[in-house]
Sequence to fold (583 residues):
Amino acid sequence: MTVPAPYHLALSAVLFTLGMVGVLVRRSALVVFMSIEVMLNAVNLAFVTFARLRGVVDGQLLVFFVLVVAAVEVVIGLAIIVDVFRAMETVDVDDVDLLRG
Amino acid sequence: MSTADLVLVGPELVLTIAAVVVLLQDAWATGGVLEPQTPRPAAVWGSLAAVGLALVWDVGGRRWGPAFGGMYVRDQFTMIADLAALAAAGLGILLSSAYLPRVRLPAGEYHALLLLATVGAMVMAASGSLITLFLGLEILSFSLYVLAAIARRSRRSLEAGLKYLLLGAFATAFFAYGIALIFGATGSIDLREIGAARPSRLLGAGIALLTVGLAFEGALVPFHAWAPDVYEGAPLPVTAFMSVVAKVGAFAGLLRVFPLALAHLAGVWGPMLAAIAVVTMILGNLAALFQTNLKRLLAYSGIAHAGYLMIGVAAGGPAGTWSVLFYLLVYVAMNLGAFGVLLLLARQGMEADRVEDLAGLSGRAPWAAAALVLFLVSLAGLPLTAGFIAKLYLFRAALGAHQPVPALVGVLTSVVSVYYYLRVASAALSGGAPQAVAVLRNRLVGAALVLATAGVLWLGLFPAGFTAAVQQAARQAAAAVR
Fold:
């Protein structure tokens, strides 16, 4: 028995929304970053579901591109967050506020 | 993948290889020292040579056509957008040559990332499918995140990088979800096939999410909040380069999606994009009135100009397309020129980024002051300059598409913008020079200013040749997606 596609799409939408709420609510740069990864994985789920639904392989292909982009984002993001922590001893986005105007 | 495909992506290929070579050569020469005390001419000249070669290949190549199964398209539209991106890269390299050794920024990384960001903008301009657009956007923005944070000792630079990264990655997620919905609605990611698909609610939602990602990169309201902070915190040459290259990429992408691929739905997206344009122009110009920091002032001015560019995208059709392409060329020259003059100044070894730091510039460096006034007058869009003609084309495109409101708001906000641009210009022309501010002499920065001045004068006084080129580019690109 297979689970019908609308459920996958609903799960994808729920995950995306959870990630979005996480970005807006949490204050630690690391958790914000993790929430963005959840959003990107929700995108992947949608791609795979649509690819199955439509019988087109393009959607599966796109997942690999999104995965690579997410991996690069982690590498760059963690490097910047580590540098920020070294300089300011905090990764709380509310405390990083020299630039205001 | 065939040889013909590789010839078509030649300009991008040259820059990518050069980026890797510059990075490795610099690491080899410095032994991995991150903060070299001496200037690194090899990185500067190497990347300049790569930009020159890509420029010759781009303009002189004259080979058009799709590559990689239609995912990449090289046509005259791509050529003009690449010209703008490569001009930004060339001027960006020249302008930063004095700043980098003075502040001890890593030259290899800086030049490699600058070249890669240019590649990203060029790939976006050449996108025939949403994958290409996505990858181009990511190559562009990842390079810019790192460039914004490249001054690792400066808390402001790190904060700029962190903010840009978090908000940019957030916008990327929306962009990717938009692609997923469009794929679900049409079963394709090819821009031509999406354009031919039946409109549906799912497609509309996907396109709205796609717009979020592009509007973020172009700093359009309401996705502009990052711009003032990131512009202020990033090192000055990075701010200068970023302010133009991100706009080239974002608006080339917007043109590929809206006026070119989705031309038959112009009645649906036209009014929405026009509303974004109106809000962006009003907010950008009003906020710029109250700025005392030059980087923040130019950030809000950049938001305002994104609004002007959006008028053309919203107007759509060939007229809207070519007026945006023309505006991008003009914007690269005048905005990088204005930043270039600021790069000639140093306040006690730091950036001179306050309006009052410019005081007395006309007495100490008359040519630089004259160039600054020219760039500011052009940014304000006063007659006889390139900025005036470029705005005129945009407003005319809006009237031709029966959108009088954005054109009217554009004219009114341009009048407002005269005030803050001329406030900066009058600071440069009057008063005694502050003791703390030194005027640097540097041949490469001077050369960049001469080139930018020549660009603004040429585009302003003899626009006919460029106008014909961009008109033909818009017609060819529109015919190819029919």
Q: What stands out?
A: Chain A touches chain B through 46 residues (CB under 8 Å). The first helix of chain A runs from residue 5 to 25. The mean pLDDT of chain A is 87. Chain A has three helices and no strands.
